[in-house]
Amino acid sequence: MIKLIVNADDFGFSRGVNHGIIDSHVNGIVNSTTMMMNMDAVDHAVELAKLHPRLKVGIHLVLTCGKPLSDNVPSLIDEHGNFKSQSILDETVSLEEVEKEWSAQIDRFIRTGLQPSHFDSHHHVHTRKVLLPVVQRLAYKYNLKVRANGSEPIEGVEALSDISFFDFYGEGAKYDYFDQLSLNVELGGIVEVMCHPAYIDHRLLTGSSYNLPRVRELNILTNTKLPSNLVLL
After folding, report:
1. What confidence score (pLDDT) does residue 184 get?
2. pTM of structure
3. What are the backbone dihedrals phi and psi of residue 147, each rounded to the nearest 5 degrees, phi first?
4. Alpha carbon of 30 to those of 191, 192, 195: distances in Å?
């Protein structure tokens, strides 16, 4: 038997994303999600999460979208006060500022009263070697599991799963995805599949280059019957 975590990223990005994730949980196979604590629809996401306590909720740490929660993090922002692109993650990044900002995001989550299941990150930035010391300290400080980098756990932290798959995305999101997964993964482990279901709203359409394919993901996730050797964790 394979224990399966189907985690919907970007909870809190927009109301359309939030509703898509909840619909994929209530009427589909999504059993976990991670929340972007710096985005406009995060309060709406918290409300929905509290109405659906069976949905595991973690933190989707952000460095590359929207604005930071913290003041005085100059190495992380552009001239407009927005997070820079993924190209910021080099030797110019202040690890102190990253830890300050990510701590603020985790603390805001904890103040909601929700119990965090784990953390991962937007654009997988927590897997960058330059940020490893921060990831290790935060995992230890908050006693949280961390999304694995594919088949590789993050050094020095407890992994959420034995392996994480990031290929349920774009053209890789297929109706037989989970049938194929059941044939290609060894029995007895814990497997995470990342997904991005959503309904399209203006915020998503104008704020993310990955928008229309999310509706296809939602349709697949709400119309999939898992093979007998896959069980939701």
Report:
1. 83
2. 0.95
3. -60, 135
4. 13, 11, 9
